[in-house]
Amino acid sequence: MKASEQKFLKEYKIKLGPKTYIFQNIALEKSPIGKWTLSYDKMHQMMKAVAATILADKEKALSFDELEHLADTAELSMAKIADLIKVDRSTITKWKKGDGSIPYADSYCLKDKLPKIIFEFEDRQDNAVSRSTFWFEKGKLPYPKEGAA
Predict the structure, then answer these.
(1) Is-contact 68 19, C-beta < 8 A?
(2) Helices in 10-103 by DSSP H: which ranges?
(3) Own/partner pairs for 133-137, CB < 8 Å, 24+ apart?
(4) CA 25, 42, 81, 57 torsion: positive or negative?
(5) pLDDT tens for the chain, residues 1 to 149
(6) What backbone torsions phi and psi does residue 47 show, to the nearest 5 degrees?
(7) Under DSSP, is residue 88 helix (H, G, I), strand (E, B) or coil?
């Protein structure tokens, strides 16, 4: 790619409740329709970096915003999260409607199980379409790259 075909974001922010995670000098790619975008792979790498930061603090209970981010990163529904830690699905709803905090025991269980799902995701073969065949625009659904199957 020519230097003139490259564009960089000074910073990209992922906001989770009161916390903001900032990524600097993010390379954008030109999409088939001529817009500068993040590839789905780059966006997922940033989401994984935030997930790693959240999961690293074993002493802190998760906020609901953090749980949603982890679920999105792992591509799990809240129903699957409930099954994973063996709580009723209504419990997840209560956490969301409540003060947004998740009991420490459940947080600890999630922080133990989710890394295996999030960081081994690339090894799973259950996705019919590779992530690298999509573009991501903030606030919009990913769309296929030109020539992607």
Answers:
(1) no
(2) 40-56, 64-74, 78-85, 89-97
(3) 134/39, 134/40, 135/29, 135/31, 135/32, 135/37, 135/38, 135/39, 135/40, 136/37, 136/38, 136/39, 136/40, 136/42, 136/43, 137/31, 137/35, 137/37, 137/38
(4) negative
(5) 454 466 777 788 889 888 899 888 888 888 778 888 887 788 888 999 999 999 998 888 888 999 999 999 988 899 999 998 888 888 898 888 886 678 888 888 888 888 888 887 554 434 434 444 444 455 555 444 454 44
(6) -60, -40
(7) coil
Q: DSSP character for 5?
A: G
Tokens of 149: 């199957």
71/64 Cα distance (integer angstroms): 10
Q: Which phi and psi (to 5°) does residue 23 adopt?
A: -110, 135
Give whole-number Cα distances, 130 to 91, 111, 123, 148, in Å: 34, 27, 12, 9
Mean pLDDT value across the chain = 77
- pTM, 2 dp: 0.72
Which residues lie below 8 Å from residue 78, measured CB to CB, with a gap of 6+? 71, 89, 92
Residue 88 tokens, joined? 């009723």
